[in-house]
Design goal:
By secondary structure, the protein is an alpha+beta fold. The protein has a single domain, classed as 2,3-Dihydroxybiphenyl 1,2-Dioxygenase, domain 1. 23% of the residues lie in helices and 23% in strands. The chain contains 2 helices and 4 strands, in the order βαβββα. It is globular.
Amino acid sequence: MPQLRYVTPFLRVPDIEIAVTFLTDTLGFKVSIRAGDYAFVCRDEAAFRLVEDEPLTPRGGGRYTSYIDVDDVDALYAELKPKLDLLPVGHVMAPCDQT
């Protein structure tokens, strides 16, 4: 029987440059593929497909959420903390609120 390996969320973003910069510079992802308004970024076995597009009209109470399971959350927190401290204070809808 064929094995399913990964699910890679496809995220629509208003600005591909800002999204790629946030995921690479802040969260440590690497760009595997970049073609115009499309990017595929990954870090270890986690990945996102990004496409620049107009935001969807909200349909009510739901929002898209992605979870990334990690082996050592404390080590990841220690790695990301200095970069996360540079983000604006308050409610931030990263990467789009980081102008």
